[in-house]
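Please fill in the sequence for the structure shown.

STRUCTURE ENCODING:
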């Protein structure tokens, strides 16, 4: 399943609630995922990953203030 995301920019959410974002999913096997950001290369064990998120569309910011 993760092979379909190879080469895309993703956010990886971990079981402890932390996450990494802005990196590219480069390689994967049955035990590890190689994730590259601008500053580092991470080898993440599959057992620590809760979710992998692909941003498909930028969200609109809510308007602030009073409208009429």
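FILLED IN BY: designer on duty
SEQUENCE:
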């Amino acid at each position: 399943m993760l092979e379909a995301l190879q080469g895309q920019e993703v956010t990886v959410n971990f079981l402890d609630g932390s996450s990494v974002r802005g990196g590219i999913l480069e390689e994967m096997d049955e035990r590890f995922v190689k994730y590259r950001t601008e500053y580092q290369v991470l080898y993440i064990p599959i057992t620590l990953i809760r979710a992998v998120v692909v941003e498909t569309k930028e969200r609109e910011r809510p308007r602030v203030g009073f409208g009429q």
